[in-house]
Design a protein that fits this description.
The complex is a heterodimer of chains A (269) and B (172). Chain A is an alpha+beta fold and 269 residues long. Chain A is built from 4 helices and 12 strands. Chain A is elongated, with a radius of gyration of 22 Å. Chain B is mainly alpha-helical and 172 residues long. Chain B is built from 6 helices and no strands. Classes of the chains: A alpha+beta (269), B mainly alpha (172). At the A-B interface, helix 1, helix 2, strand 1 and strand 2 of A face helix 1, helix 3 and helix 6 of B.
């Protein structure tokens, strides 16, 4: 009898505790939780990303030495940046300063953010960062790497934290422009997997493999010229007036632990 | 009250380890279901019956952070917690590896089925693409890792714990 009463009391206490915790979590608007976990989460993400980075180079080095491949990737990024700069210089922007860092080069203010949590699979690619509205982050603002390569955009924002949908997330889409002769514009969406796709490109537009894809600036908070990726495959659909481009993104979210959030007030597409 | 705070502290540490460290690891290591396995281990093996709500709280955290593949993860984890309570109470014994592995595997099956149902339902109302194979493969990896953790890691931790407590008792 006594043990049954004690059991009931313990059960009631557990229920009360559970309800308090659940309500506290639910009404904490992300901020409280991310503030609490931030000191531990940021180094843990850093460690996890470092391991991912090491594994990435190890996996990729089956045919080529790890060092050589690393250099090739760096070269590819450098070429992509260089090509984008050249085009931008030719077309419209004589104020770009080629040898400076991205943020100075683009004249865009930014907020540095640490990644606190990640979720990456073929069906979802999102991460939580430690900046929110209190720090100047806004819904729809772009996240880039230190080199200015587009990573994704903010899709959920709290006071002290925000969730970024990476460009490979199936729910993510961004207005892009191809650096081909006709400057084809389109919308790049995350397809299921690690690639992006641009649909509804008229067949009379000439696109080639390895054409650079950059943001077009048609979205309010995302400036033009941020490097998105390179065209990997072009698919012409039989009987359709459109073709589809599969784009390989240049950023790899799995290996990132710090990103820059572009400040929307300073963005001028 | 101290107990509740201790639970909260452990819970936050566990969640942080899962969403920050494990999920940043390369595939398929990022599929390790640490929270689920620790909860089942403590609930079933260590008789900590008051921690069933850890799973539901984890679901809430995933919903709060909005980084999960399925919507309403709290609901999926509530189903998993209910399955755990049911299995431990009526089906499996609390002293064998097979019992714990059985609970972990069936909880993961329920979790995956619930996630698939919710994703499928959400898919009816949105045009988002999703791959059910990905969710199923993630679940299979998670099952493998759950068995691995229960088979190798936890007995090892138990040995360390008993070794330490023995040493401390000797000193006292």
């Amino acid at each position: 009898m006594k043990s049954s009463a004690t059991g009931r009391k313990r059960f009631r206490r557990t229920i009360v505790a559970a309800v308090i915790v659940v309500l506290a979590l639910f009404f904490s608007f992300q901020g409280l939780l991310t503030t609490v976990i931030a000191p531990v989460a940021a180094p843990l993400v850093g460690l996890g990303s470092w391991i991912s980075d090491q594994v990435f180079w190890w996996q990729e080095s089956s045919n080529i030495s790890s060092k050589a491949l690393q250099n090739l990737y760096k070269e590819r990024e450098a070429f992509a940046i260089q090509a984008q700069e050249t085009q931008a210089l030719r077309d419209e922007n004589e104020l770009l300063k080629a040898e400076l860092g991205f943020t100075e080069r683009a004249g865009v203010e930014y907020i540095a953010a640490s990644v606190l949590a990640k979720s990456i699979s073929h069906s979802v690619s999102r991460f939580v960062i430690d900046v929110g509205t209190d720090d100047g982050a806004q819904l729809g603002a772009a996240a880039v790497t230190g080199e200015g390569i587009y990573v994704g955009k903010i899709t959920d924002v709290g006071k002290h934290s925000a969730t970024v949908s990476a460009l490979t997330d199936p729910t993510h889409s961004v207005a892009v422009s191809l650096l081909n002769e006709s400057r084809t514009i389109g919308v790049a969406t995350g397809s299921v997997g690690d690639l992006l796709q641009i649909d509804f490109i008229p067949t009379d537009e000439v696109i080639r493999q390895n054409d650079l894809v950059v943001t077009s600036g048609l979205e309010d908070l995302i400036p033009s010229g941020l490097i998105v990726g390179v065209v990997n495959t072009i698919t012409e659909l039989t009987g359709s007036p459109f073709q589809q481009a599969i784009v390989e993104p240049l950023s790899d979210m799995r290996r990132l632990s710090v990103v820059l959030i572009l400040n929307p007030t300073s963005v001028q597409p | 009250m101290t107990r509740i705070f201790l639970h909260l502290l452990l819970l936050i540490l566990l969640f942080t380890l899962q969403v920050s460290f494990i999920q940043a690891l390369p595939y398929p290591l990022d599929r390790i279901p640490l929270v689920l396995v620790v909860t089942i281990y403590l609930y079933q093996y260590s008789n900590q019956t008051s921690i069933w709500w850890w799973l539901i709280s984890y679901g809430f955290v995933l919903d709060l952070l909005a980084i999960s593949v399925a919507p309403f993860e709290a609901l999926s984890y509530a189903f998993a917690a209910f399955t755990m309570v049911l299995l431990v109470g009526h089906v499996f014994t609390n002293r064998s590896f097979y019992g714990m592995a059985g609970t972990a595997l069936l909880c993961l099956v329920v979790l995956v089925l619930s996630e698939l149902t919710l994703i499928g339902t959400a898919h009816l109302f949105t045009s988002t693409r999703f791959s059910w194979q990905d969710v199923v493969f993630s679940g299979l990896w998670a099952m493998g890792f759950a068995c691995f953790l229960l088979l190798f890691i936890f007995p090892f931790l138990r040995r360390i714990r008993s070794f330490l407590s023995k040493r401390l008792l000797e000193r006292l």
